[in-house]
Amino acid sequence: MYLRSADNSHSAPDIRASHWLNTQNPIALTELKGFVVVLHAFQMFCPGCVIHGIPQASVIHSLYKNDPVKVIGLHTVFEHHQVMSVDALEVFAHEYQLDFPIAVDRASANNPMPLTMQAYQMQGTPTLILIDKAGNLRLNHFGQLSDMLVGNMIGQLLMEL
């Protein structure tokens, strides 16, 4: 798994959220130029998310808190819609001590896949998205990646001008 080259990347689509947790204002990716953005797409009932993805996002958020790195969770629901409410997500975030911003992906009127999930052409959850300091999409990975590999990729993006 490798990062796309800067020459072979394109601007990351913005997050289309219906609700935000852990932030007073919605976050636009255009406001985060100069930061490496780690976008972690998850669902509360996704075993891979709970066991691997969410802990990884939390560690990244903690380890890079003094660096130009922003971690954003994206709760993207494409199944079990009835039980994955914002209230349930708030309890989940509290119990798992998630203190990074979390966007609730906006539902689509005519597609079971939410809007941000569609815009990034995600295959499911967990999905890890890395966006460089210029706002370009450099990684879109469905499934798990080792912490060392992700840390290496974030380091590479931090070193770029």
The biggest sheet, with number of strands, parallel, antiparallel or mixed sense and barrel status, is: 7 strands, mixed
Number of strands: 7
Spell out the helices and strands N to C.
EEEHEHEHEEH
Numbering strands along the chain, what is their spatial order in the largest sheet?
Answer: 1-7-6-3-4-5-2
Residue ranges: pLDDT <50 for 5 or more in a row?
Answer: none
What's the CATH class label? Alpha Beta
Q: Helix fraction? A: 25-40%
CATH homologous superfamily heading: Glutaredoxin
> Remind me, CATH topology?
Glutaredoxin
How far apart the termini lie comes to 22 Å
Going by helix content, strand content and strand pairing, the class is alpha/beta
The number of distinct structural domains comes to 1
Mean pLDDT: 93
Count of runs of 4 or more consecutive helical residues: 4
Q: In the CATH classification, which architecture applies?
A: 3-Layer(aba) Sandwich
CA radius of gyration is 15 Å
Shape: globular
Brief overview:
By secondary structure, the protein is an alpha/beta fold. 28% of the residues lie in helices and 23% in strands. Strand 6 (127-131) and strand 7 (136-142) form a beta hairpin.
